[in-house]
Design goal:
This protein has helices at residues 3-13, 20-31, 39-47, 55-67, 114-124, 148-152; strands at residues 37-38, 71-75, 81-85, 95-99, 105-108, 134-137. By secondary structure, the protein is an alpha+beta fold.
């Protein structure tokens, strides 16, 4: 099943309609999955197809997508809320490597915390329903002269 069909089913299961505007917003997120877009970036990408679409509609739709656990609202330390699609078929949110020098964000799809979750369940009676792990540091290339931020003065993600 394609991701849009899965998302449509999630909307229907919660008695929400996947309107054409909402679908356009989801499509932008799917098409730019690696970019961790902000509300404003989603708005600018959707505005071409839906010029009448307001920024408030994008905000409300992204919040609904968070509520339905389709996307995760994230902040990588740059003061900007970004939206990241949850991986289909994974129980938990994927993890991130965040470079504090250039701002590059890389995703880790593997779930390295299953053993820890089992231990928490066993020792504390605590059932983990979700987790997210962000590693902050610096890429080796950013400690030398190869950092993209130093070349163009802006962070990348």
């Amino acid at each position: 099943m394609n991701p849009m069909d899965t998302i449509a089913q999630q909307f229907a299961a919660h008695n929400y309609k996947l309107t054409s505007q909402r679908e356009a917003i989801v499509k932008v997120l799917l098409d730019n999955e690696k970019d961790h877009l902000s509300v404003e970036e989603v708005y600018m990408l959707v505005k071409g197809s839906y010029p009448q679409l307001g920024l408030a509609t994008v905000y409300r739709t992204l919040e609904l997508l968070c509520e339905l656990h389709i996307v995760e609202k994230m902040n990588f330390g740059d003061g900007v809320s970004r939206y990241d699609l949850r991986s289909e078929g994974h129980d938990h949110m994927h993890h991130h490597l965040i470079c504090q020098s250039c701002g590059k964000v890389a995703e880790i799809k593997d779930d390295w915390l299953e053993e820890l979750e089992s231990k928490l369940e066993k020792e504390y009676g605590f059932a983990v329903t979700d987790h997210r792990l962000d590693f902050k540091g610096t890429y080796r290339i950013c400690t030398g002269s190869g950092c993209k931020r130093e070349k163009n003065g802006q962070a990348i993600s």
